[in-house]
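Issue 218. Parser rejects a valid record. Input:
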Amino acid sequence: MKLQPDPQSALNTVTRYEDDHIEINAVKFNHSLLVMPEGKIETWAVYSFEDLLESHFLQISEKRPELVIFGSGSKIRFPNPTLLKPILQLRIGIETMDTQAACRTYNILMGEGRKVLGAFLIGN
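Output the parser choked on:
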């Protein structure tokens, strides 16, 4: 689905998503990624939901977002709570949804000026 960005925005916006990729600011990414409204879009070295480790959520916690929108792939799946320890210890909120819903939610929150981080799994 193609999303229409605000033409005056310099923020990292999801402009399109499909099962096998996400576009941020019209740049296509075929791998899982971490994105915040400002700054570099980062590769998230997670290749499937089953590969998630506590260290993946530690990587997120180091960015100190106020809220994480976790896109779990093509269907909603909740990570084991023990993996979320680095986020929960810092009292960072996390919401889990399928990646397409996560992309839409990220854009809404980012547009509201929230310090949100999108952690998007691609595929499965």
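Fixed in the parser; the record now loads. Residues 81 and 92 are 13 Å apart (CA to CA).
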